[in-house]
Write a structure and sequence with these properties.
The protein has about 150 residues and is mainly alpha-helical. It has one domain. The chain contains five helices and no strands. The protein starts with a helix and ends in a 9-residue tail after the last helix. About 30% of the residues are buried.
């Protein structure tokens, strides 16, 4: 499946199972915090982009969404954001930034692996802590992104 098909399938699957929790409670709380943070919407698009890339090409290291990091398992998160997530967000009028997350100050010009020890500058701080922890959860296979 291409990324557009992946994101649409995940969206319809989620809507049809909206009342069925599928994440462990602690992970679910992190996701909810990010999604309900009205003062900073960029982490939502950032995570969507990274997750779609990981599902599209499972060999990607979800913690390497910047080609500057180097290696065979890096990818351009901005490419996925601008080419797939942006139109998805607009189509469903999702409460996210209208432009790429990768140009916001916290997600711009990163050239290192995104691990939980990275201190990202932005407010509220917890939204970035949760974002990095979720990337780590996927990397450690505590959360397995859907295989479509």
């Amino acid at each position: 499946m291409n990324p557009n098909e992946i994101i649409e399938k995940l969206y319809t699957d989620t809507l049809s199972n909206i009342d069925s929790p599928f994440l462990e409670q602690e992970i679910s709380k992190k996701v909810e915090f990010i999604c309900r943070c009205i003062t900073n919407r960029s982490p939502i698009r950032f995570l969507l982009s990274c997750l779609i890339a990981k599902i599209h090409k499972f060999e990607f290291d979800i913690r390497k969404p910047y080609t500057e990091i180097g290696g065979d398992d890096t990818y351009s998160g901005r490419f996925y954001d601008e080419n797939y997530v942006e139109s998805f967000v607009a189509k469903y009028k999702l409460p996210c930034n209208t432009t790429t997350a990768f140009l916001t100050p916290a997600f711009r010009n990163i050239d290192r692996l995104l691990t939980t020890d990275l201190v990202m500058v932005g407010k509220p701080r917890q939204v970035y802590v949760n974002t990095l922890e979720l990337l780590d959860n996927v990397f450690e296979k505590e959360i397995l992104p859907g295989h479509t």
